Amino acid sequence: MYSGLNCPAATDCSPRSWVNDQGVTGALADRYGDGHYGTQAAHGEHWRQFCDYARDQGVRDVRQVTEELVTVYGQVLQEQVAVKVMAVSYAQNLLSSVNVVLEAMRGDSQVRVSPSELVGERNSVRQEAPAGIGCAFSAHPA
User: Fold this and answer.
1) What domains sit in the chain, N to C, each tagged with a CATH number?
2) N vs C: which end of the chain shows fewer Cβ within 10 Å?
3) Cβ contacts of 53-56, under 8 Å, gap ≥ 24
4) Cβ neighbours of 70 (radius 10 Å)
5) Distance of CA 22 to CAs 13, 40, 58, 63, 64, Å?
6) Looking at residue 7, what is its pLDDT?
7) Exposure on the CB side of residue 70, measured as CA atoms within 13 A
8) Per-position DSSP letters for 86-133, written without gaps between them
């Protein structure tokens, strides 16, 4: 478990502080090691959005995050999907990042939700690699 979760009493444990080097950044670095920088950055940005929501709900400490809070956040995202303000895939990504960060910070999967159950199933899956990736990974070595 990432030790940054156990904030000393004098430390600011507000949701904003969860995204600093002693919070999510350290937890993700511990989880992924030296690499996966894009993945870590995406999880960090998605986590910041959850932190904003958590703060609005009165949560001031990551230890106060419950499955109920994450579920209600998922319902808020689902409402945005329903009115076509947000894509299902993006809402799922936001919730997946919350799962990943909480697992990295807590060291367990006790607070975990199913993104597809909360915001719906994706209606399309990429069939080809994005432009520019295909040249980096060739199935036929030269």
Assistant:
1) 3-116 (1.10.150)
2) C
3) 54/15, 55/14, 55/15, 55/16
4) 21
5) 10, 14, 21, 15, 17
6) 38
7) 27
8) S-HHHHHHHHHHHHHHHHHHHSS-SS---HHHHH---S----SPPTTT
- Contact indicator for 110, 99 with CB cutoff of 8 Å: no
**How many whole angstroms separate alpha carbon 99 and alpha carbon 113?**
7
**Per-residue pLDDT, 130:** 74
Residue listed under structure tokens 């986590």:
47
What are the two backbone dihedrals, phi and then psi, of residue 50, each rounded to the nearest 5 degrees? -65, -40
Q: What SS3 state is found at 138? A: coil
- Which candidate, 20, 14, 109, 96, places its Cα nearest to that of 63? 14
The pLDDT of residue 133: 63
Residue with the two structure tokens 């975990």: 112
**Distance between CA 68 and CA 63 in Å, rounded?**
13
Per-10-residue mean pLDDT for the chain, 142 residues long?
Answer: 36 45 68 78 90 91 90 96 94 94 84 89 76 56 48
